[in-house]
Design a protein that fits this description.
The chain is of the alpha/beta class. Strand 2 and strand 3 form a beta hairpin.
């Protein structure tokens, strides 16, 4: 009998349905990844997201999955990471910044189109799962994966499993109020959720930019604020220090409730190097403990965490 080639092995894994396919549905792009049982990447594709067209979006996802399986020689499990979340009551998506998805039965439609069950969860959950599974949080019992970008969200992974909760909102810390607010932080900026003073309005990228503009009267991007703080710009340094202190308060609140082993940061703001030394030094003032052993870590998989986490939604089932 001839020796098996890597391509033959991929076909065997597909036929055994051990290959994991993950799809990250974003506002501008849809990405698919195929992982082997050990987490090695076999295939990756990315296409633009059809804008404002739910039906075309479903068709694009289905085509990506079918094309990947055709190339790799069989069928596998499918996980989907989405903006927003799926209502447990209705099975419909809600809270998506890609508004054409809101109110749509995406899981139901993909199940029907593919002829099998898909697993679907929020993209922040996928980020946390990826980092817990084989990223910065590998080996930790409880991982809190916080995304600090245009918005603020998080996922929680406990012993390798995503914690969704009965309302499918576990990890939505960005829409809690900024804890222990100072007088000048009340009532806080208006948030798109309809409330004021949400954590998201302070520790997102736009939150840093809004704070700097309010303090100096000058507009600047978050990237420029960080760069100019590093070379001694006083206004930028002060804005970044306020950002770190607010992030420390926000994460201390998480530690007091969840007490995670690891907090992994993702999103554009996670690239600020000084956060990983300064924020743990600051958060001890608000954590209800004589010492804080929680580790604050930068993500390992970067922009790939979401799509990798979607592939891991099937775990070792």
């Amino acid at each position: 009998m001839r020796n098996r080639t890597p391509h033959d092995q991929h076909r065997i894994e597909m036929n055994d349905e051990r290959l994991r396919l993950g799809v990250d549905l974003g506002g501008t792009k849809i990405e698919i990844i195929a992982l082997d049982p050990r987490g090695a990447e076999l295939l990756r594709r990315r296409i633009p997201t059809p804008q404002g067209d739910y039906g075309a979006t479903v068709a694009a996802i289905v085509d990506l999955i079918r094309d990947a399986e055709r190339e790799l020689g069989g069928g596998g499990t499918v996980g989907i990471g989405t903006p927003g979340s799926m209502s447990r009551a209705t099975g419909l998506l809600r809270g998506c910044n890609s508004v054409c998805l809101n109110g749509q039965p995406l899981k139901r439609d993909l199940d029907a189109a593919l002829g099998r069950e898909v697993r679907l969860t929020n993209d922040a959950n996928c980020f946390a799962l990826s980092e817990a599974r084989d990223g910065a949080g590998t080996g930790a019992n409880v991982v809190f994966g916080a995304i600090l970008g245009t918005g603020v969200g998080a996922g929680i992974v406990v012993r390798g499993r995503v914690l969704d909760g009965p309302n499918a909102i576990a990890g939505e810390w960005g829409h809690n109020p900024l804890p222990w607010p100072n007088d000048d932080e009340r009532p806080g900026p208006s948030c798109f959720c309809g409330r004021s003073g949400c954590i998201e309005t302070f520790v997102s990228g736009p939150g840093l930019e809004r704070d700097y503009l309010g303090a100096t009267g000058k507009p600047a991007t978050s990237r420029d604020i960080v760069a100019r703080a590093a070379i001694g710009d006083a206004g930028c340094a002060a804005a970044l220090a306020r950002y770190e202190e607010r992030l420390a308060r926000s994460l201390a609140h998480v530690i007091n409730i969840l007490d995670p082993d690891v907090i992994v940061l993702g999103g554009g703001m996670s690239n600020i190097d000084r956060l990983y030394a300064n924020v743990p030094r600051l958060w001890a003032s608000w954590v209800f403990s004589d010492r804080v052993d929680t580790r604050l870590l930068r993500n390992m998989h970067g922009d790939s965490s979401g799509v990798r986490g979607a592939a891991w939604l099937w775990g070792d089932d």
